[in-house]
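Objective 1b: paired records.
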Amino acid sequence: MTPECTLKVSSPAELIAAVPYLLGFHPADSVTVVAFRGPRVRFAARHDLPGPDQPADELRADADHVAEVVARQGVDGATVIGYGPAARVTPAVTRTAEALRRQGLVVHDELRVTDGRYWSYRCAEPECCPPEGLPCPPQNSAVAAAATYAGQVALPDRAALVDQVGSVAGAERVAMTAATARAQGRLADLMARDLHDAGFARLVRHSGRTAVRAAERCYRSGRRPGDDDVAWLGVLLIHLPVRDYAWERIGTEPWRVAMWTDVLRRVEPQYLLAPACLLGFAAWRAGMGALARVAVDRALLRDPRYPMARLLEDVLDYALDPAAVRGWPRVTDPDDPGGDPRKVRA
């Protein structure tokens, strides 16, 4: 689900050209709802086409949920676009459009995209909507160019988006495995300095905050920290006070998404939960809903009960507007007089 976008479209063809940039990837076998406030695209939501054996009551409940989410965005109309074969797309588009109308929204159009052509379920005039359909706009269309100029990206498919948060492999993985072993030894040395729980917790908290701030300075300047630095950060982030300190500092700067993407990809699998959720939060704040979703999904695949991942899953499921945390972070951080002076409690 994608929050507000400033693209303007004036025809079904232009809307179809815009959808991959609204979602971040070219959809397939799915239903997309593009919602408008006046002439502007306000919101886009995508869900998979249902399976052939899904019960009718579940199908209606899923459509109603999507419609409720769209209606909460303060929109006044929407277009439904189904991607895939007609036999699967037609009932899904019809069901979704009916659910939107039950929410009091105007459905501007109902479209199907199949094999590079599109059809409108709302038009039976062969002059403008021939039975063989119309060709979809090329990838270098004016809308695509405008979206690219505005910094939007459309990956080939959702799998490519998932790959963006996958672990590094090959020599990079070998190096990170070795760096993680060194970081674990470093943590053991830290424990040996103070065997009392309270003393060790203070040492970890101080070391974690130092590591977070060092990583931020590095990524903010466009540099990529070394393996030992990322491994040390990953080991420390399993401690909730360190994770929450990093969480509290996440603003809307683009480098924060790059930072947590890189950390997530490089840490060893047993340390991915915190970086995956921190990336999910950073991407959601930046309006990159699809990236936030795959990051949170990766955390949930590792541990379906991880509280932060489940919280973020709810935020994404209900398409909570990032404006809900406008002003985060905002409180002076006494531990970082020379860095980012903003912080709030989660």
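Objective 1b, second protein:
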Amino acid sequence: MTQATSRPIVISAQGLTKRFGDITAVDGISFEVPAGESFGLLGPNGAGKSTTMRMIGGVSQRTSGSLSIMGLDPELQGPEVRAHLGVVPQQDNLDEELRVRDNLIVYGRYFGLPLSYLRPKADELLEFAQLVDKAKSRVDDLSGGMKRRLTIARSLINDPKLLLLDEPTTGLDPQARHILWDRLFRLKERGVTLVLTTHHMDEAEQLCDRLIVVDKGRIMAEGSPAALIRAHSTREVLELRFGTEHNHAAARTLQGIGERCEELPDRVLIYADDAEAALDAVAGRGLVPLTSLVRRSSLEDVFLRLTGRSLIE
């Protein structure tokens, strides 16, 4: 799958495959990412997202297919690729023996960058990450959100053209997630190409211009969040809970209301363009749910439609 664009292509993957013995983690996926785009890989744990990121970063060799990063093969020209790459791993791997500011400077030395560049750059990144007052603090004294912002700041020490973020907000509270989203949006405004993996639909909707929905190593759909929702779901969703022992029977009675009905272990979903009208129809059939919720469709609904299961299981 490709996307027509006049911007230069930063990542081009064609038939990208990765096998571990008899297990196929990435199964012949194809996609392109133009410069300046925020591109997402959305899917549940084990879908092949992190494996794809490792191949892009040049730390895992592909089994077959082609992969080009800024016109270079990451397997053959790894150092050249990594010189223009920033990586935010799924788990923070900060040096806890160093102070906050020193984490940035020491990391920059790995790129061979001079101290005359690193000292002012570290101060600039601490301001960007809202960590100026923590510059001399120990890493252990930082909150989870602060550590995540420091990890992102560290990944920017070499002014990368491409930033890879693997599950950037996993484990953070809502406030810390929104602060991090703001920092990433600012990077996008500067023209940095972002590639992120996530299983959080709201994160994908907030951050991604375009994304691929991945399951079991394969691409199920590709497009902008809004386009995917329009193509694979209705405008609204009615969530109903009748109790664990009663959802199944209720789902059978609800068939025919709205465009379709989905039964999950803890609730029943009715997809309709007018969910309030669907709720009236439920009452008309003599059913009284324990709880009801009208909401707009999300990428979670897209994934459920494409795979028959939830993003987070």
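The chain has a mean pLDDT of 93. The longest helix spans residues 174-189.
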